[in-house]
Specification:
Radius of gyration: 23 Å
Number of strands: 19
Shape: globular
Structural class: alpha+beta
């Protein structure tokens, strides 16, 4: 997500301010294969300042993945949670965990990474007064109800379940057994924070300091963020390039055009309109690999029209009106696979993926769709407006195709229309304010490779990414039971039962599983996407 020398950036500043295009030469320096070359990559402005506990969207997550390292890190190829800063995580009861850190870790400002770095960061993330979007991830730690009550003011500033033992050791006590808790600790919300974050918060927000292989050199909203290799990085996964320039594009088609013209090195989300050409345009420099991503249509359950009795029939009818096979073949050129559950095939059968769980509700059955919608009381207001952000991801094409399919099935060419919202940030802000006028596109890129992550954050009552505010006591109870189960196979079965509740209520319409797609210039080598569909930036070589 970047790519230019300081000299070239100074010369091109005026041009970049006017248009999100690079200034030739792949938007980066020439490189020499010695690890000093800088690459440029397409990007979008993050929704919020880059606090680890306040970033729950993809664009900000890409930066956090370069600037921070946590207790665990997920293997790029397998998704397995492997120890990073954690030397060991021990527990005899799956409820209290003793975490010991490795020696030698520090932040890029020279501060050591200690147990307090984690405990202070987690306390900050959990605190109600800090209004962090990922506060929910700390919800199982003892004392969360005091620092982040569901109503009223907080009665404590720190989580009672966190205790610093010494510089290299801290303990975590949960409110219930959670056998896979250690596997969640590679998520960015659990990253450590330096003392500088708390001493001068405003300064930190302007130029975040982390402990990952890159440092943030500069950021101009709407234009570019420049990250540079941190030579003093103590980890084994050192950057194999000199840095990345993340260039802001409001249209992925423009980014793709810049890639072909030699003005950009990497596009990590090939637009739908270009998929049919990508292989012939790029040859071996086109990547299409499975990823832990599912696209769905979510509903505003805070609107009584979508939460009233019988509305589930309308939602199921809409699902059966969508010809997933046709859309994934014609628009996405087989880089998407029609979804038959609410998780991802990358989990595997043992991990909880259950092909066909959705049943007929995810099959194209136009006659039955029309009948179901009618039985459910018809479309609220006589029409559904599917909202989407118009700046990235080529969403217009598939939303129009979905609406066309629904209109054909229901025999009404005005039954469904797209509702474009200018930018991703505006789209997310409207969702956060619960102002969606109807269904809206919802993509989920897993935070960690567990079935729990495809269900709990999205559908658990008041969960961090439960944007539609769906709530179901049976689902919540099954998730709680699954989290408490120490036998992994039994836990997966319980999560699958919870997923069955999602199915029976059609809490969201599953559309398709998404492959990661990317294209890159001939200046780059060793380019790959991880299971989260994010480029493994630190391994890319330039020149």
């Amino acid at each position: 997500m970047r790519g230019a020398t300081h000299a070239r950036w100074a010369a091109c500043a005026a041009a970049v301010a006017l248009a999100a295009t690079a200034c030739g030469g792949g938007g980066g320096d020439s490189g020499g294969g010695d690890g000093s070359g800088i690459l440029s990559s397409s990007w979008g402005d993050p929704q919020n300042p880059l606090e680890p506990a306040n970033t729950n969207e993809v664009q900000g997550g890409k930066v956090l993945d370069m600037v921070f390292r946590g207790l665990k890190r997920y293997d790029a190829k397998t998704g397995a949670a492997e120890d990073m800063l954690a030397d060991k995580i021990e527990s005899s009861d799956s409820q209290t965990f003793k975490i010991t850190l490795k020696d030698g870790w520090k932040f890029s400002n020279g501060e050591p990474v200690t147990a307090k770095s984690f405990v202070d960061a987690w306390n900050y993330g959990a605190s109600l007064k800090n209004n962090q979007k990922n506060a929910y991830f700390f919800g199982y730690i003892e004392g969360y109800d005091k620092v982040h009550p569901e109503s009223g003011t907080q009665s404590a500033d720190t989580l009672s379940g966190l205790k610093v033992v010494d510089d290299k050791t801290f303990t975590v006590k949960l409110t219930q057994k959670f056998s896979t808790f250690p596997d969640t600790l590679g998520y960015a919300a659990f990253a450590p924070l330096p003392k500088a974050f708390f001493d001068n918060h405003d300064a930190w927000l302007k130029k975040p300091v982390g402990n990952g292989p890159y440092t943030i050199d500069s950021y101009t909203k709407g234009s570019k963020m420049s990250l540079r290799k941190w030579d003093g990085y103590p980890g084994d996964d050192k950057a194999q390039n000199g840095g990345v320039d993340l260039k802001v594009y409001t249209d992925n088609n423009t980014a793709y055009t810049d890639l072909l013209a030699g003005n950009l090195d990497l596009v990590d989300d090939v637009p739908a309109a270009q998929l049919k050409n990508a292989k012939s345009d790029l040859g071996d420099r086109y990547i299409n690999t499975p990823a832990g991503i599912i696209q769905t249509i979510a509903f505003p359950f805070y609107d009584k029209n979508w939460s009233k009795a019988g509305a589930e029939k309308v939602r199921k009818g809409l699902s059966m009106a969508i010809n997933r096979d046709q859309i994934t073949d014609t628009i996405f050129q087989k880089t998407r696979t029609p979804a038959t559950d609410w998780t991802s095939p990358v989990l595997g059968k043992d991990g909880g993926f259950q092909e066909g769980l959705c049943g007929d509700a995810c099959a194209y059955k136009p006659d039955e769709a029309k009948k179901m919608v009618k039985e459910g009381g018809g479309l609220p207001g006589g029409q559904v407006k599917i909202s989407y952000n118009a700046d990235t991801g080529s969403h217009k094409e598939w939303v129009d195709a979905v609406c066309n399919s629904i209109n054909n099935a229901l025999g009404n060419d005005k039954a469904c229309v797209g509702n474009p919202i200018g930018t991703f940030a505006d789209f997310r802000n409207q969702i956060g304010k619960h102002k969606m006028p109807g269904p809206f596109r919802a993509g989920w890129q897993m935070d960690y490779p567990l079935i729990q992550n495809f269900l709990q954050p999205l559908y658990y009552t008041n969960a961090s990414s439960n944007d539609g505010k769906w709530s179901n006591k049976q689902f919540d109870q099954l998730v709680d039971q699954a989290n408490a189960e120490t036998d992994r196979a039994k836990a997966v079965k319980l999560f699958q039962q919870a997923e069955g509740v999602v199915r029976d209520n059609m809490a969201a319409i599953p559309l398709w599983y998404q492959n990661g797609s990317a294209g890159y210039s001939d200046r780059l080598s060793n380019v790959a996407l991880n299971q989260f569909s994010v480029p493994v930036y630190n391994e890319i070589k330039v020149g």
